[in-house]
Design goal:
The chain has about 190 residues and is mainly alpha-helical. The chain has nine helices and no strands. Helix 4 runs parallel beside helix 9. The longest helix is centred in the middle third of the chain and has 21 residues. It is globular, with a radius of gyration of 17 Å. The termini are far apart.
Length: about 190
């Protein structure tokens, strides 16, 4: 039982952010997606669908601080972006909150427990998207019309550039940890 408590604690809070660190990460969490949405883009869908910027800072927060602070970062970001840029669309806030919550949870578990933790970001995104699509498909209020597997595969294909960014973030943390990185010594 004690070992399970330690495991949950290590997932929930790797280390407590200092006020300045928390402020910088929350500012980055807000700024990164806003900057992505401000890039001139004439695609059929918003550029964020392809680059997945909301997940970047949430993944950094998972790696550095753990599940608790990463949930805050991941859930606050879409709301702030909606208020400032109009994206994501209001109707997407609920599904996005679910997607980010699953993403952060899966990424936290993989980052701490899996030998393939360098894939935590992309795998967590795939899991979050799968759960969200499943809920949208099962709940009649969403008026879901696409086959779930087709939607999921299309989302992964559309988000390929963002998945590569998440992979790069994970690889950066893996290399840093391999060198004996410790936030307290930095």
């Amino acid at each position: 039982m004690l070992n399970q408590t330690r495991t949950l604690k290590s997932l929930w809070s790797v280390r407590r952010p200092k006020v300045t660190e928390a402020t910088v990460l929350l500012a980055a969490a807000w700024l990164v997606p806003v900057l992505v949405h401000l890039i001139p883009w004439h695609g059929e869908r918003p550029l964020g669908v392809y680059l997945l910027p909301v997940f970047w800072t949430a993944l950094v927060a998972v790696q550095v601080y753990g599940l608790g602070f990463a949930l805050l970062v991941g859930l606050v970001t879409p709301v702030i972006n909606l208020a400032l840029t109009g994206l994501p669309a209001l109707g997407r806030i609920g599904p996005m909150a679910l997607e980010v919550t699953v993403f952060v949870g899966v990424a936290a578990v993989l980052a701490r427990k899996a030998p393939w933790s360098f894939l935590a970001g992309p795998l967590a995104y795939a899991a979050g998207k799968a759960v969200t699509i499943g809920v949208q498909w099962l709940v009649p209020a969403f008026e879901y019309h696409r086959p779930p597997l087709e939607h999921w595969l299309c989302s992964l294909q559309n988000g390929l550039a963002g998945l590569l960014v998440l992979l790069a973030i994970n690889l950066g943390f893996a290399l840093w940890a391999q060198r004996g990185g410790d936030w307290e010594k930095e």
